[in-house]
Design goal:
The protein is of the alpha+beta class and about 350 residues long. It contains 12 helices and 9 strands. Its EC number is 6.1.1.20.
Length: about 350
C-alpha cells in the first residue's frame, strides 16, 4: 500500500510539473483527489488493510493529499501571475493621464422656479393638482364663462384636434375638473404645459407653462386674494418686494385685476427693465365669477373664491434676469449650467 501511494504521488507531481495551462490543473485535481480519483480509491480499499495498519495508511494518504494540494496551489499561482502579467502588458494604463470627468446635470431653471413656487403654496396649505394637456373645448373655454364666438377666444387661439377637442391654452381647465368633484373647500395650484398659436420671439412661444391657483371656501374675499399673492411675491422675490393691483377684465373672474411687483433690478426706482415705472406685471387674478361656480355645481350664495394665473417662464425670466425666453428651450449647456 505504501508503494502504491508513492507511485500515485510521483505520478501526480510529474503531471503537475508538466502541465502548461490552468485548466489542466483542474483535470489533475479531479483525477487524483476527486470522488473517483486515485487517492479516493485507496481510501475505499482500507477495508482490505489490517486493522493495526489502518492508522498508518490513513496518515500516508492524508500526507499525499496535502502534498498534491500544495503543489497544485503553487502551480496555480504561477499560471495566474503569468496571466496577470500578460494582461497588464496588453492593457497598459498611463496613470499620469487625467481621468474621465463625469458630467453631472442639474435641474432646468424652469424646474427650479416651479419647485420653489410649489414649496411656497404647499407651505400655505395648497395641493398641487395636474390635468390633461389634451382637453375638451368645454373645460378650456365654456366652463370658464367663455362661450362660442366670444372675443376672448381670439386672445387664446389654440390648436384644435377636432371641433370639441384641443390642446389646452390654460391650466384653468384643471380648476374646473376639481370644482366638479364637489369636494370643498378647495386650495390648489395647477402647474402644467399649455399651447397657443403664438409666434416665437423673445417673450412668446407656441408652448409654455402656466401655474393656476384656486381657492373656494365660505367667506373668501378679495382681501384673502391680496394677502395670499403678497405673501407669495415676498417669498419668491424677497421680503422687500411690494405688490400693486390694477383693475382688469378676465371672463372667468369678477372683479379682476393684474398684479405688479416692484422691479427686481432697480427696487422700484425706475430703470430700463421696468421702462421707468418701477413696476413689472407678473400675473392676472380675481374673484371667481358666480356663473363659473354655478356651472361646476357650486352654490355662489354659499361659497366664494379667488383664482390667479402666472406664466412659469415669465417669473423665471424675471427671477434670473433673463432677457430672451428662447434661451430656456435651446438646451445650450453653456447657458443652463449657470443656474
Amino acid at each position: 500500500m505504501k508503494d502504491k501511494l508513492k507511485k500515485i504521488l510521483d505520478e501526480a507531481m510529474a503531471q503537475i510539473d508538466s502541465s502548461d495551462r490552468l485548466d489542466r490543473l483542474n483535470e489533475i485535481k479531479v483525477s487524483f483527489l476527486g470522488k473517483k480519483g486515485e487517492l479516493t480509491s485507496v481510501l475505499k480499499a482500507m477495508k482490505d488493510v489490517a486493522p493495526e495498519d489502518r492508522p498508518k495508511v490513513g496518515q500516508l494518504v492524508n500526507e499525499a493529499r496535502k502534498t498534491i494540494e500544495e503543489r497544485l496551489d503553487e502551480k496555480r499561482e504561477i499560471f495566474e501571475k503569468a496571466i496577470l502579467d500578460e494582461k497588464l502588458k496588453s492593457e497598459t494604463i498611463d496613470v499620469t493621464l487625467p481621468g474621465k470627468k463625469l458630467a453631472m446635470g442639474h435641474s432646468h431653471p424652469n424646474t427650479i422656479t416651479l419647485e420653489e413656487v410649489e414649496d411656497i403654496f404647499v407651505g400655505m396649505g395648497y395641493e398641487v393638482v395636474e390635468g390633461p394637456e389634451v382637453e375638451y373645448d368645454y373645460y378650456n373655454f365654456e366652463a370658464l364663462n367663455i362661450p362660442d364666438n366670444h372675443p376672448a377666444k381670439d386672445e387664446q387661439d389654440t390648436f384644435y384636434i377636432t371641433k370639441d377637442i384641443l390642446l389646452r391654452s390654460q391650466t384653468s381647465s384643471v380648476q374646473v375638473h376639481e370644482m366638479e368633484k364637489g369636494k370643498l373647500p378647495i386650495r390648489m395650484i395647477a402647474p402644467g404645459r399649455v399651447f397657443r398659436s403664438d409666434e416665437v420671439d423673445a417673450t412668446h412661444s407656441p408652448t409654455f407653462h402656466q401655474i393656476e391657483g384656486l381657492v373656494i371656501d365660505k367667506n373668501i374675499t378679495f382681501a384673502d386674494l391680496k394677502g395670499t399673492l403678497q405673501e407669495f411675491a415676498k417669498r419668491l422675490f424677497g421680503e422687500d418686494t411690494k405688490v400693486k393691483f390694477r383693475p382688469h377684465h378676465f371672463q372667468f373672474t369678477e372683479p379682476s385685476a393684474e398684479m405688479d411687483v416692484t422691479c427686481f433690478k432697480c427696487g422700484g426706482k425706475g430703470c430700463r427693465f421696468c421702462k421707468g415705472s418701477g413696476w413689472v406685471e407678473i400675473l392676472g387674478c380675481g374673484m371667481v365669477h358666480p356663473h363659473v361656480l354655478e356651472m361646476s355645481g357650486i352654490d355662489p350664495e354659499e361659497y366664494t373664491g379667488f383664482a390667479f394665473g402666472v406664466g412659469l417662464e415669465r417669473i423665471t425670466l424675471f427671477k434670473y434676469e433673463i432677457d430672451d425666453m428662447r434661451l430656456l428651450y435651446e438646451n445650450d449647456t453653456r447657458f443652463l449650467k449657470q443656474f
